[in-house]
Specification:
The protein is 21% helix and 25% strand. With 149 residues, it is α/β, with parallel strands linked by helices.
Length: 149
């Protein structure tokens, strides 16, 4: 389970040397746990399992997502990273996304933190009670405190 959650694409994913592609996996020295995997490893996995793409999360991206090199056998990205927590840890200033794949089309909805909840001088939501109330009363709202950018 650890490797499913904490593995990451190689830093030069899709542009690995032939030696790196043969290895397919290497220790993830950035996280100090799990592995990096290569473009070739993902393409082999996709083909062996008759899949279109690997869609993963758990890695912050400034734009909320990253699409990597297309697979050998389709025009679709071999790997997509999404991140659904905007302004992660109230520090990164990143966007968040939700993917919708329907009828052969991939739609990406990008979100940022809503200005609806004013922030104090430290950048924290100043009316936490209102935010919590809205979270409970509006469970179907798009990630509650988020608005499309």
């Amino acid at each position: 389970m650890t490797d499913l959650l904490w593995s990451d694409p190689a830093r030069n994913y899709g542009e690995e040397s032939s030696r790196q592609q043969q290895e397919c996996f290497s220790f993830n020295d950035s996280r100090r746990i799990s592995f990096y995997y290569t473009y070739q490893a993902v393409c082999d996995f996709l083909q062996d399992n008759d899949l279109l793409s690997v869609i993963r999360a758990h890695e912050a991206k400034d734009t909320g997502y990253q699409m990597y090199r297309r697979s050998h056998f389709s025009k679709f990205p071999s790997l997509i990273t999404i991140f659904s927590a905007p302004n992660y840890c109230d520090y990164y200033g990143n966007k968040a996304v939700v993917l919708n794949y329907s009828n052969g089309a991939l739609n990406i909805k990008v979100f940022t933190l809503s200005s609806f909840y004013p922030k104090d001088a430290n950048g924290l939501v100043s009316n936490v009670e209102q935010l919590l109330y809205d979270l409970i009363k509006n469970p179907n709202k798009s990630f509650w405190a988020l608005l499309p950018s």
